[in-house]
Amino acid sequence: MTFESVLLNSLYFLAIINPVSKISILSVFSSERKDLREVSLKSTLVAFCMLGVIIFFGDILMKKVFRLELYALQISGGIVLAWVGFNALSKGVFFEVGTHNRFTDLAIVPLACPMIAGPATIAAALTFAIRGEKGALILSIALALLFNMLLMFASAAIGGFLKRFNVLGAIIRITGLFVMTIGTQMVFDGYASWR
After folding, report:
1. pLDDT > 90? residue 77
2. What are 136-147's pLDDT values in tens digits?
3. Which band of pLDDT confidence, cut at 50, 70 and 90, is reported for residue 74?
């Protein structure tokens, strides 16, 4: 793989990971900035480990243990991603956080999984792993996760800025449309593989 393809794959994974959804959640907890880096780093590392396991062992687990085909994962992951995008488009939020949740409790669930390493990210990682070089794929995912983490670090400031100009809701809805489109494309790709 070339540097250009690694970069393009990173952008693809970044679109699926969807940093806007993390900013919209983390900016709610702007008063707890001291824990923001810890939560962001922990969720990123957990998601990276999960995706690494999927890249190297996902095909074996899926085909040998669960007896599933890749197209089934693409279709189901695409449906979930399209549903998340539709909710963001119609409601203006990617994920609702309950008032009972402590900020540090968000690192694993929902941030690491399903918001970073969710069904669509897992399906895409497995698809790329089966088709191509795993080392380059790990690098692409690492770059996407690194950029996402940097945005998570700055989410309180970014969220505050966007809220001040009253554009966070519009950005969430526009991003939701793109997320829904990526999910729809995954469904069509899975259907084409099945055919």
Report:
1. no
2. 999 999 999 999
3. confident
In the chain, domain spans: 3-71+118-167
pLDDT surpassing 70 at residue 126 = yes
Tokens of 94: 């990617």
pLDDT of residue 136: 93
In angstroms, the Cα distances linking 49 to 2, 54, 92, 142 are 24, 9, 30, 10
